[in-house]
Every structure is written in C-alpha cells, then in structure tokens.
Amino acid sequence: MSADRQSADGTVNRRGFLGISAVALAGVVLAPGVRLIELAAGRSPGEPVTNQVRWGMLIDANQCDSGCTDCVTACNTENGLSGGTLETDSQWIRKIEVKDLRGGKARSLPMMCQHCAEPPCVDVCPTGASFKRADGIVLVDKHICIGCRYCIMACPYGARSFVHEALTDQKPEVPRGKGCVEACTLCVQRVDRDLSPACVEACAAAGHKAIIFGDLNNPDSEIAKRVAAFASRQVREELGLNTGVRYQGI
C-alpha cells in the first residue's frame, strides 16, 4: 500500500479507502458482458477503443431551428430521462439562445457535455468516477461516484446533472442511479454499435441536418472535412479545453 493511502499508525485514510473501493468495484458487472474495468480501460465489447479515433460533433447554428427540440426529445427517449426541466430533473442536452451583442443576431443551439480533451470534471473527481475514454468520450462510472458534485461545479458548460430521486424502469444499456452525477455520453451505447447518437439521427430526420457526428482524427470523415473547410468555434475556447463539440455560425 502506498504512503498516501496509509497513515503512520497503519490505518487506511479516506483517500486510500476510496482508491481501494474503486479497484474493488471495477469488477462489478455493468451490463451483460460489460465490466466497469473494461470501460475504464477504454475497451468496448468486441472491439478495443483507441486514441486513433476521437469522436466529436459539429453543430451548425445556421441550420438549427429555434423552435425545434427534436434532439432533446431523442436524447430523453434514448437514455430514459424524464424530459422535465426542474432543477431536480436530469438534462443531458438543452437548447439555449445566444445573441451577438454587437449586431443583435440571435442563434439557437443545443448545449451538452463538450467532451473536452482536458476535462475539468475529471481533474476534480476524487474517486476517478469521471473519466475520459481513449476515444475522447467523457463518462461517469456510477458505481464509484460518491455524489460529491465537484464535477458539476467544475464544468464550465453546466452540462452535468445530479440524480436526486430513486429511478425505476431504467434501460440496461444506460445505467443511472440516485446520488450519482450524469451527463451526455454521446450515446456511447450506440457509438459502440457503430450507430450515431440519437440527437444526430433525430436532427437529420427532421430535415435540419444541423449536427454532424464523426471522427475528428480522420481527415477523410465528413466532420473533419467540414472543420477544415469552414470556420468553427469552441464554446469557452479561451479555457483551452480542446472540446470535442464544435459550433459553426456563432
């Protein structure tokens, strides 16, 4: 046992206990065939996750209809969220209005976890429950989240929610639980099956096609070509977090 986990009198301190607990819980079964240790190591069933891929989104605010909430509805349906807007309701994606104070031009755009390359939520998490997969998707391990909510305070995008009440009728692929923090996962359960996130499909079905999902590291992907050809911005880009979600038209 390392020195930072054991005090002089041989007793295990709180940090050590949390670290040991995290390791012990890593073998817990999350869903059939999926263990937490596999997720934390960046492995999905059947195929390893590597840093050769970086999943991301490009959102064109010019194509986003201010009155459309199809992406929000799709997210709620796919991930078993209530769709409520109270402080106690989880909101993984929400529509916000931004306005250019100089020209007065207004834009509507979806806001969710930005899946930062340097995520502040991961930096402040005392148990390692907040982590980033090798392919750039930022997740929360519900089995070792202690509900301290440090990550909520650290997130500059207000993208994380806390589950206040016991949940029923959960979806096996999207584990949730009272006392845990959660946020957009880029529909990782779909991505690992070579499907696009639910919000992307819903936006395309509505005819807007305002959201492109793909591999930012692949120069031949549609999203990489668009980022290279047209100006895009990161929200709070001054923080230098290198977000996986980019915006055009803002």
The neighbouring-strand order within the major sheet is 12-5-13
What is the typical, i.e. mean, pLDDT? 84
Number of separate strands: 13
Compute the separation of the termini in Å.
Answer: 51 Å
Total helix count? 8
Structural class per helix/strand content? Answer: alpha+beta
CATH architecture: 2-Layer Sandwich
SSE series: HEEHEEEHEEHEEHEEHHEHE
Q: Measured on Cα atoms, how large is the radius of gyration?
A: 19 Å
Shape: globular
Largest sheet: 3 strands, mixed
* Residue share in β-strands: 15-25%
- The share of residues in helices is 10-25%
**What are the segments in which pLDDT stays under 50 over at least 5 consecutive residues?**
1-44
Which fold name fills CATH's third level, the topology? Answer: Alpha-Beta Plaits
Number of domains: 1
CATH class: Alpha Beta
General description of the model:
This protein has 250 residues and is an alpha+beta fold. It has a single domain (3-248), classed as Alpha-Beta Plaits, CATH 3.30.70.20. Helix content is 23%, strand content 19%. The chain has helices at 14-25, 36-40, 70-79, 120-124, 150-154, 188-191, 198-205, 222-229; strands at residues 29-31, 34-35, 43-44, 47-48, 55-60, 93-99, 106-112, 130-132, 138-140, 161-162, 181-182, 211-215, 245-248. α3 (70-79) packs antiparallel against α7 (198-205). The radius of gyration is 19 Å and the shape is globular. The model is unreliable at 1-44 (pLDDT under 50).
